Amino acid sequence: MKYINYVFALLILCGTCSMSVQAKMSKEAHELYQEACSYEYKHNYPEAINIINKALEINGDDAMLYTKIAGLYTETGDYNSALAAYNKALKLQPNDAFIYISIGSLQQTMQNYDAAFEAYAKGTEIFPSYKYNYLNMANVKYIAKDYKSAIDYYNTFLSAYPEHIEANENLANSYLAVKDYEKACDIYNKLYKEYPSNFKDYFRYGVALFNTKKYESAVPMLQKAIEADDANTLAWADLALSYQNLDEKDLALNAFNKTFELNPKLTGLKFDYANLLGNMNQYDEAITAYKEYIEAFPEDAAAYKNLGVVYKESGKDALALLNLEKSYLKDPTNIDTQKLLARYYHENKDYASALKYYDLVLQSKPDDFDVKANKALVLHAQKNYPAAIDLYKDLLLVKENDRIAKNLVSAQIAYGYYLLDRMDYAQATLYFKDALRDSPEEGSAYFGIAEAAKSMNLYELAKENYKLALEKEPDNTGYYNTYKAFIDSLPQEAVPETVQTANDKTPTAENSSEVQSTVQQETETKPADAPQTALTYDDLVKKGNEYYQSGKYNEAVDYYTKATIMKPSDSTTMLKIGNIYNLLGDEEKAALFYEHSVEVNPAYANGWFNLGLVYAKLNRHKDSIKCFDTVIKLTPDYPYSYYALGQAYENLGDKFNAIENYTLYKGFEEDEHMLNTIDEKIKQLEK
Question: Which of 408, 321, 410 is nearest to 373 (CA)?
């Protein structure tokens, strides 16, 4: 490289740098040396070599003569003779850094880069303060494409000579080669600002800027590179991509077209080109470009995914699905592909497949709100109402959302009617009431409660809720006809006069006010209860208790349910129903009634405790911990809560909290056998 000779010149001017003392050249040999230098000046290297050989016959132990003839051999291209001469000089002066550096230069010229570096390194070992030799080592590593080593040596050299332009250029290029684009940008920027007239690395600077996503700055650099060389295909390609990232679609399209005009075989660029065409709604052209890319790169999952999207946008659903599924097979972990497939199947009402892909997304992104909302919709559409309801509730805990709140009410009402059809009137009523708590204007929920009450012979409660349903939806002929049929089925003395005279009327927009008047008059009328409703709330609870004690659980649930319908705030009876379902092994139903017992009475410690126990049976240990913590807050001396907490933490693998709560429980327990059991548990956990 052109600055290496400059290094040697400096060394010559500086002398031999703490080298061993050489033999004194004789007068005759020195005269010949001077004569050879004169011929060298005239570029008559053969004659100069001939004269130095004569001098060596006189003074064969003089290292300077060998270095001189080595230099002359180098000028004539006789590198082997030059290397032999340098080695003879080295034998005479083994600690001469200049000789090693000269050998390094010669080996570099011969493209023996490892040998060149070894010689340069030896020179630095002898004369470490000579920083210019680090430039030689850096250049050798740079030429050999060992960029990481080159970076180290260039930085060492530049610490002494920071303004050296070529070293800075090569350092920037090395950083670019190892993809340290930020550092490359910093150096190119410095060179561009400080030496604008000498700056020529527009293309490399543009590439570095592009790769650091500084697209606005990359564009002018790449344009300058193209001005210097209009056939620079890579500059056109990066310019196209820069425009694409800046959303300059037309400019990007022109640059892509120029790139492919210069090199039609740049198939790897067809992916980005196809993306651009798709974004410009040029679907046919995009499809062609994706296919060309896929032919060259058949394992690229992203190409199949994007091709599927374009097919979908162009209305070719079958081909869209085919390519999305191919993309998924190539890369089953890609969340975007999973979302696209889930959405496709959802829109086409293939709910089972949609659910599969929504679940896959949620495995990677469990808190994705939109995906969870869509999954809830799928569960709703599949009539898996309990799961949909739970998911809607979870989502509403994260943030308020009117659409999800409405969907929750819809699912609660739908599930209520599902339970009605299966004569599970107790649970049905709970879901209708949940819906009304969230949306008090839902006439269908009142109607559902009325239907459940009628089926359980609670006629007053049925009548009240039929009327409420009609108040909310006065134009609903179905409600009116059902209510009228119900009234007609009652004993005559219980039927309000207004209903008896309205047999031929059905609600319409015109007579809705008359229906409302009928409802109002009925509210004011207090007809005698039918014989079946003579039992009071206390009677119902008492009958329920009797059946429970005799082991007739279905009958007990029937009476307890009637009691809770008459008195919705009865948390104790809710707990009893939960206990029966728990006893029968139906933990899900048990949990539902325990949950309602603490909803109507948040300070009900027994309700929280039983709910915690059933959550534990359902392996919902984190939820059970919350329940037991609530019990302790309400009743700190509730001993079994500490024991239950210990078990819950133990099941979660949290040994520290398990031991802590078992230890707290010991402070309440007096039974020696139980204390021994707890001690054994603690010992096992402490291992």
Answer: 408
For residue 383 the two structure tokens come to 């009539």
What is the pLDDT, as a whole number, of residue 509?
36
Rounded Cα distance, 330 and 304, in Å? 9
Residue 154: CB atoms within 10 A of its CB come to 30
Quick check: 222 and 239 in contact, CB under 8 A? yes
Q: Is the Cβ–Cβ distance between 345 and 351 less than 8 Å?
A: yes
Tokens found for residue 319: 């081909």
| C-alpha span between 387 and 379 (Å, rounded) | 7
Alpha-helical regions (H) of 233-368:
233-245, 249-262, 270-279, 283-296, 301-313, 317-330, 335-347, 351-364
CB under 8 Å, gap of 24 or more: what pairs does 487-490 form? 487/463, 490/459, 490/527, 490/530
Tokens 């061993």 found at: 20
Cα dihedral sign for 667, 673, 674, 679? positive
**Tens of pLDDT, residues 331-388:** 999 999 999 999 999 999 999 999 999 999 999 999 999 999 999 999 999 999 999 9
pTM: 0.67
Residue with tokens 């003839």: 69
Q: Please list the ranges in the chain whose pLDDT falls under 50.
A: 1-21, 493-533
In this structure, what DSSP letter does residue 492 have? Answer: G
pLDDT value for 681: 86
Under 8 Å between Cβ of 491 and 530: yes
Residues 6+ apart with CB under 8 A from 55: 28, 29, 32, 33, 36, 62, 65
User: C-alpha distances in angstroms, 313 versus 278, 320, 326, 327?
Assistant: 9, 9, 18, 17
How many Cβ atoms are within 10 Å of 295's Cβ, its own excluded? Answer: 10
